[in-house]
């Protein structure tokens, strides 16, 4: 298996996406509403999902793909992907099963990958792009401290037509400030 590090917290474990995650991830990738903002349309078969996972589950994958699981369980709830675009700059992407929404799981999982990229690997910048109408993704990025940096018109040809994209960026020092504010706001044990 890949040298992708396993990332853990009290409630989540992020590990390399595997082809065997196809059944669990098909539930996400076949959700018409959830897939609205993706470049490709909803999957129609587990085989389609399996074929998509084969290249990202390999050691030579250009995107590093962490499956999000609950600690002690091994069922993929979604993933966080990272792709190094140039020295010390990565792009991230993520998806989470609808039943796991509203529990802070996406924020925690993406935060764990940001810690890996900024604190462990020493990257200086991480960016994401999202559809201007994807309010949930925009909200997550803003909660994580990402700043809107650009609006690219007619950037993507998708299954719902030609779409604009918003670019959000986060610098290492900004992430450190978010982490510090989160720690200060956390209730004392």
Automatic annotation (TrEMBL):
**What protein is this chain from?**
GNAT family N-acetyltransferase
Cytoplasm recorded as keyword: no
Q: Which InterPro entries would you find in this protein's record?
A: Acyl_CoA_acyltransferase, GNAT_dom, N-acetyltransferase
Q: Does the keyword Transferase apply?
A: yes
Q: Which SUPFAM superfamilies match?
A: Acyl-CoA N-acyltransferases (Nat) (SSF55729)
Q: Where is the N-acetyltransferase domain?
A: 12-167
Q: Please tell me the species this chain comes from.
A: Sphingomonas ursincola
UniProt keyword terms in alphabetical order: Transferase
Extract one GO molecular function annotation from the record: acyltransferase activity, transferring groups other than amino-acyl groups
